[in-house]
Amino acid sequence: MMPHHGSLARPFVKKSSVSALLTAPAEPAEAACPPRSAVRAAFAASVAALETEQVVPVAAALALRLGVDGLLHVLGSGHSQLLALEAYHRAGAPAWVAPLIDRRLSPARGTGGTAAERRPALGAQLAARVLAPGSRARALLVVSTSGHTAAVAEAARLARAAGLLTIALTARQEGNPLVAVCDHVLCSGVASTDAAVDVDGTLMAPQSTVAGAVLLHALLAETEARRPERAVLVSVNLEGGVARNRSLLRRYPHLHHP
After folding, report:
1. Distance between CA 110 and CA 187 in Å, rounded?
2. 116: left (phi over 0), alpha (psi -120 to 50) or beta
3. Is residue 26 part of a domain?
């Protein structure tokens, strides 16, 4: 009796991308595979297909703009908000990253968050926060897979008009309103459906968060490499970790939260 593997799935990726990732002999690309394997193949292909060279000019501009003590704010709505938090106060990430978070845009609000992100006026409120007197904001990175999120696009437009360096992290440039209001663009190239694995006719496994996180950290690492002094947090669970972070906590007070 044959073992039961459940539903079979195909990764929604180019065959050439998948075959390039596999070093061992594999079944023909047309053959179905278990969903768990299709998901792994789809994510591996999305990451392998990323054009990381695109971060180089953006990192050069960002390092110059940050100067000695400037901040990069990161804004996203819905699940893109996860990337706004991805590198904040995190071991292995720069202390100069600051999330621009609004609870109304949280994915935890479900349809309430979807309704809020369609309001340009909310974007104006977000921009006002990073443009307030005394702000150390020097750049704004806006995450939106489609680029059609009205609130974050408006925040980017206003931030750019006020002189901040603006960066879009999105899926593609064509027909993308966010691209038109940002100085630089990083493209993940994920499918417009976001989901990439066919499970019995239904697409699953959205790719944008993982692909976006790789591009984000590539940008941060390239930027930090261009700065004269390291400002990277370490784990407080490592010996001496608390002491190593202490000077960065003094230098970047936004890392303290009540």
Report:
1. 26
2. alpha
3. no
* Whole-number Å distance between alpha carbons of 167 and 152: 12
Domain membership of residue 249 (yes or no) is no
Q: Tabulate helix, strand, coil % of the chain (nearest 5).
A: 45, 15, 40
CATH for 93: 3.40.50.10490
Domain that holds residue 57: 52-225
Is pTM beyond 0.85? Reply is yes
Scan for tokens 């443009």, then name that residue.
131
Number of domains in the chain: 1
DSSP H or E run through 100: none
- Residue 82, judged by CB atoms within 10 A of its CB (0-12, 13-18, 19+), counts as middle
* pLDDT tens track, the chain, 258 positions: 444 444 455 555 444 444 444 444 433 344 578 999 999 999 999 999 999 999 999 999 999 999 999 999 999 999 999 999 999 999 999 999 999 999 999 999 999 999 999 999 999 999 999 999 999 999 999 999 999 999 999 999 999 999 999 999 999 999 999 999 999 999 999 999 999 999 999 999 999 999 999 999 999 999 999 999 999 999 999 999 999 999 999 999 999 975
